[in-house]
Fold each of these.
Amino acid sequence: MSPSSAPVSEVPAYNPRNYLNSPATGLRSWLTTRDHKRIGVMFLVATTFFFAVGGLFAMLIRIELLTPGPTIVDAMTYNRLFTLHGVVMIFLFMIPAIPSGFGNFLLPIMLGARDVAFPRLNLLSFYVYLLGATIALWGMIHGGADTGWTFYTPYSTQTVTKVVPILLGAFILGFSSILTGLNFIVTTHTLRAPGMTWTRMPLFIWSIYATSVIQILATPVLGMTLLLVAIENAFGWGIFDPARGGDPVLFQHFFWFYSHPAVYIMVLPAMAVISEVVCTFSHKNIFGYNAVAYSSLGIAFVGFFTWGHHLFTSGQSAFDAGIFGVLSMFVGIFTAIKVFNWTATLYKGSISFKTPFAYFVGFLFFLVFGGMTGIALATVSLDVHWQDTYFVVAHFHFIMVGATIMAFLAALHYWFPKITGRTYPEGWGLVGATLVILGFNFTFIPQFLLGNEGMPRRYYAYPERFWPLNVASTAGASVLAFGLVLILVYLLVSLRSGPVAGPNPWHSRGFEWFVPSPPPPENWEVTPVITHPPHDYHHAGEAPPGGVEPEPRHAS
Amino acid sequence: MAEQEPIARAEQELEHHAHAGRYALVWIALLVLTVTTYLAARAPLPGGWHVAVALVIATAKGSLVVLFFMHLWDQRGANRLVFATSLVFVALLVGLTLLDNATRFPLANPPGSAGALPAGGANREPAPEAPR
């Protein structure tokens, strides 16, 4: 069961003709590629870079908060740091990382297709992402913004910092998101292999599909809103600024109509990864396939009805707040359906406690803990106490960031052999997972306590009674950062000198494991015919679905 | 994959059969609705009805464009479902946002808007004089 175990038969362990070296290996062939796998890898590299940039901002914030007064930066720089941390992590890392990176790489393979429906549009999506990121980075280098990633009006329409380029960058990044979502929806509808009915699709696809629906429906509202803020900032029109006859709460309605579903743009792909990981490492079919699949659509749908819980203390009417409070709780139902089904999948499974599974355990903890604090925050009367405190910061880091990072790292380790053809050192993998999970808890559990004691978010200085918990949080962040650097180092080393993985080191029954590692440019030598659902471990002795050979036929 | 081609061809044929007269009628309807928007904005309507009327007209115009210029009228199944879903979400955004304005604490509404107090809080009782 070791990832480095050699494959059987004559199939070479390392596929000699693969997407990495075929049709060409030069930089030009990568920059002009239409291969979904290469585009996925380029997205992964870019998003990982921005994860590091966002993480650097986070560490600077935590070091600044190590003492109650000024520590390393002035107040204005601090405001810019937390704004840039949020903008980079959300728009440049978490939204695109799993769908555009792993989704691009895996979706066509899992569907039995050669590529996505619109390969050129797919490449355009990457360049639009780069353009948006470049404009946002330009704004960050030339002054940055100090509004927070939420760009709340009326401050964002008055600030003298460089908010317009960053707004424009986020606006353009939205188009990348829409293009990817559109591509995935059309691909899922039109390019499924023969025999792949909707209920035989891998659960990864269901969640990515639900994510794509949100991307297409919600992102235009963000675009419109950011454009209105940029116009008000540049030309002084009265849209959101009350001094000019505008309504700042209207901005919050518009902004959160996108940004709350955007939480599910980040979490649903995480759930997509987890649904695959839990099956492979329990060696068991998912418990309640239909419930897990439809709950993805349920989350995507209900996620649109909850945005007002961000406005409980912002001047929104008490009547509206009550409605949104109740509606927000519904998300918990669909999430719970997934959690119970994942844990039921473990029951009587043959669990293999590898690194991706360790991240699955971390994911469950963060999702449930973060989710339960979310239920508490959706209760209007409780939210009045916690609104805009570190309790909220800790809550959304647990549910959104913790869950997403766990799934991102699980995916990175789980599909590393498929993407690169090599394995990582399992022992270091478990050490890295332990450091990251513990570090994350040590960072944010103190913040729950700080928030409950009343420490507001985004403050540069704080009373001395909050000092010990802030020190604890910074110490936790240091452990987290160390763990992430360790993971980066051993993965980079494994890229070149890791042992050859073989086509299916995990003995998974997921469809993507039936193509060689790394996959050939055309994914499948012949279009597979699907006769079983994915992860059918009941039939593990037989040939995989649709007559696809247990060991892939390589194209050489 | 292969069965997609006949579907695409059938759709193209449908588009070619669309009459130029239909486009002209839709164009005239759009012009009429634009003039109606202008006139409705100047008409003495009560309270927030200006916004409601403008939104209804804008929705009608958008629907005409999507149905005829973008050929949704000739489509079936999933494409219509996508359009209907989009309308539900637009209604959701506008509906719950307007519900907030309508039921909000009046001082939290922008001055001059439907749910706001009159300028200067004219209805407010003068503060009682302090007893000497």
Amino acid sequence: MIGLTHYLVLSAVLFCIGLYGALTRRNAVIILMCIELMLNAVNISLIAFSSYIVPQLLTGQIFAIFVMVVAVAEVAVGLAIILAIFRHFKDIDIDNINLLKW
Amino acid sequence: MIPYQLIWLIMLLPLAAFIINGLLIRPFVQRKSKVYGFITITAIALSAVFSVWALISVMSAQDNQILVPNISWLNIGSFNFSIGIMMDQLSAIMVVVVSVVSLMVQIYSLGYMAHDDAGYYRYYTFMSLFTFSMLGLVLSNNLLFTFVFWEMVGLCSYLLIGFWFHKPSAANAAKKAFIVTRIGDFGFLAGILILYFNAHTFDIALLHNMAIAGFLGGSALTWACIGLFGGAIGKSAQFPLHVWLPDAMEGPTPVSALIHSATMVCAGVFLVARMMPLFVFSPDAIRIVAVIGGFTAIFAATMGLVANDIKRVLAYSTISQIGYMMLGLGAAGWAVAAQINSGLFMPGDEVLLLSKAAVAVGMFHLFTHAFFKALLFMGAGSVNHASGTFDMRQMGGLRKTMPWTYLTFLIGSLSLAGIWPLAGFWSKDEILATALTNQPVLFWLAIITVFLTAFYMFRAIFMTFHGKYRGGDKESGKDYSHTHESPWVMVAPLVFLALLAIGVGWWNVTGGFSNFFGAESEAGSGFMAVFNIFTHTVNGVPLPLISLLVALLGIFSAYAVYLKKWITAKSIGKVFGPLYEVVINKYYFDELYENVIVKIGLMKGLFTGFKLFDEKGVDGAVNGTAEVVVRGGKAIRQAQTGQLQLYGLVIGVGLAVIAICVLIWGR
């Protein structure tokens, strides 16, 4: 029987993978992907809580849709920024993008 | 009985003259106009009339006191501060002295200042302000206002000593007077604050009552009294702060007559007299008063022996005579203090009366001294008017051309020397008697001073008025070879003051002055008392006779040395050798203060210390703070790598730590 715990563990594992990737990768596109992964991990736990604890309400599901919408917007803006950076630096390695640093 | 509004007017009239002269009419009247003088003289004449009226009223009033309602000045919450007037024997005597001498001096100044380029404008403005402040000082019924007026007379003294500020010596003398008296004023202020913190009042009458009731006492009272006396030392030019007064003679002579002999320098004596009910409860403080006074009397007199500037002779004489007054106050107060400490019970009223009576001796000398010393200074000014100099070595023989000046100066000198039956004899006799009964050691200092006083005064007379005229001032280029008597506006005040110098002493021949202050006196009654004085003895010693003989001996010595030249001054100087050197250099006090205390102590020691503190301490703190911030900033800057992922890591770890903490201790 697959219970709430399995979903939550899956969610936590996905979140940690995403966090690890976001903190360690140099490529801006991959960091963006990792952030998407973290958001989707959160979505899993939201929906799991929703259907296991308060199945009669749809708040979790609605919230997950909100997160997706925000994620899409974020990807749109984020990719646009990365594109602009690439055009400027001919590079998207974030270690090299330190123009504002002292 | 005088209406109390007029008592306010005594001090406010000179203030009005100051405002009119200084602020209102200047744009319309040119600065050498005599109008300024007339305004001041009118105001002070009126206040002199009211002063005398007030004195007469006080003499007949109940408890010798006129009650004047206070005026509320300041209300802050529950703290009320009112200004008011205390009109008792002491202030009545003082207002009469101040206003009468001031009036004479203002009239005299019309003639004396006539040729001065600076004009009457500034002179009379400052003189009015001074008279107002001095009257306020003696009338004030609380110590805070006494202090305010005390500083105002100090300011006027500064302005008037430096009246001819284009002369560097005058400007320096003014600064010296201001700074030296300030040292004493520090003590005064400290004394007032000690009293306020212990008694929570500035009101003088209340302080008296508190001291007598025993609410004030112990070391607080002693230190407060010593502080107050410190102010008196500065203002009255007592040892060791006497150095400013001789230099203050750089000011115009009428200023010296008014401020630096008759009134302001006596403010110290007045202060001690005013606070006498406090001093008698502090035997240490009253002892200091007596000893400083006795020592200053003889100390200053020795310096007067060798001064060649006639005004400086008079200045040393003033210091010496004020020492006498302090001695008189101190010795009488000492006796009261001893009586209080003897263990006999005395009711509070009686102590108050006793301590107020104790000031009679000192105050009487202040009273007589003011008139004859102002007279002497104005005589010196008259001589200067004719000869253009104050150096007695350039004078001589003036008695033929200036008979009135000579006569009045002679009367003043005889009175100062203590020759019967002039005013100085009576007041000095009282002090000697008090000293002899209470403090024999101080009596010996005082009786030697009698000799010295007679000697230096007649040295001045013989050098100035006798012998041959030595040509007057030779440096200015003006011709002073023919001397002439001064104009009548200068002679008239001299004559008036000479009459006072003869007569005011008779008030106490029958004990009138002492009784006015509530003291018992042994003097006889009736007109014959003037002659019977020589039958009086103090402790079996025929004191009046002795003091008269000592004074005559002093005069005779001066006669022998300076007129007949049986012994020359030089040979005396040789006999005393090094001592003479020391005295003529004023005991090296100026050098001590200037070179040792100011140059080494203050400049090298203290100011270098301040400089070090400023450079290392203050600058160090400021620069150090900046340095710490800069370095800290540099250190912390390392954390801002600009690497987004590191920030993310820190946020993540921090969040994890917080989450763990909440899990462990959260409940």
